[in-house]
Specification:
With 78 residues, the chain is mainly alpha-helical. It is built from four helices and no strands. It has helices spanning 3-17, 38-52, 56-59, 69-76. The chain is globular and about 30 Å long. The chain starts with a helix and ends with a helix.
């Protein structure tokens, strides 16, 4: 499974936990639309740090970085 699919699978599980539709495209707004909240963003941070070995506290990020699959992929793709 490639990195994009790993992230998408994680997001689908997260959406299911929130009772939201699990199908979305790369540019679906997940946070600013209200589908996911700040606690979901925290869960994403932990997932990305543990899965991809990046330190987002050191690197810095904005909540918008987690608003879509496209934005998330920019965080983990050098």
């Amino acid at each position: 499974m490639d990195n994009k699919q790993r992230v998408k699978t994680f997001l689908q599980g997260l959406l299911a936990d929130y009772g939201a539709e699990t199908e979305f495209d790369d540019n679906t707004l997940l946070v600013s639309s209200g589908i996911l909240d700040s606690q979901a963003v925290l869960r994403m941070v932990v997932f990305l740090e543990e899965t991809f070995g990046i330190d987002l506290a050191e690197r810095g990020f904005d909540q918008d970085d987690f608003d879509s699959l496209t934005n998330i992929m920019r965080l983990i793709t050098p």
